[in-house]
């Protein structure tokens, strides 16, 4: 779990700065919204006990006025673990069809594994093709 905040610069080929904020940092997330031009929202797909909390956090982020037009990439991570929930299951639990249809921003969903790199190429491609620098 991420505690605190980390900044990472990527060259894709343009410079992209990624600010990582852990879920426990939720109360301070809004202080960074005005700097945000794209959003990566990471969900632990191996932890069914956290699904409702993650969904509430996602809905809160999507409803924030400064993020109304910011592209969003939802990453269902930890698919390398035997207990992970599939993309179909996660979409169903999050009611992603309803969220996408009501959201003002474009939303993309991917399965990833930070451990073995599954989905990383797709994440980098998304970062390359989003209009501005992600937060």
TrEMBL record:
Residues reported to bind GTP: 23, 77-80
GO MF, one annotated term: GTPase activity
InterPro entries in UniProt: P-loop_NTPase, Small_GTPase_ARF/SAR
Pfam families given in the database record: Arf
Coiled-coil regions listed: none
Keywords attached to this entry: GTP-binding, Nucleotide-binding
UniProt key word Methyltransferase: no
GTP-binding in keyword set: yes
Protein name: ARL16 protein
